[in-house]
Design a protein that fits this description.
Largest sheet: none
Strand content: under 5%
Number of strands: 0
Number of helices: 3
Shape: flat
Helix content: 55-70%
Radius of gyration: 24 Å
Order of helices and strands: HHH
């Protein structure tokens, strides 16, 4: 009985998939630029001659992307300095 419970507990613990997170460091002006571009794409799609269903899909997709960006964005107050330079070896 102990072996069965051990196996069942092991399967239960290992059956959960871990989420993978990707962290990107993007300067704030770049994020603002792309955010404004997404808003402009929504306006262009709304004024286009595309069928209504396609326009709704485009706008909903962009809204979803922007919502996820806003929800997961974190402000890093540190300023990235220049990359370290490798020291030269003396001969």
């Amino acid at each position: 009985m102990k072996k069965f419970l051990f196996v069942a507990a092991s399967i239960a613990l290992f059956s959960f998939a871990a989420d993978k997170f990707i962290t990107m460091r993007i300067p704030e002006p770049t994020v603002n630029y792309h955010w404004n571009n997404l808003n402009n794409i929504k306006v262009i799609a709304d004024q286009s001659n595309l069928p209504h269903a396609q326009v709704k899909f485009i706008i909903a997709s962009i809204d979803s992307l922007q919502k996820d960006m806003a929800k997961n964005a974190r402000l890093d107050s540190t300023v990235a300095g220049p990359a370290p330079v490798a020291s030269q070896k003396k001969k």
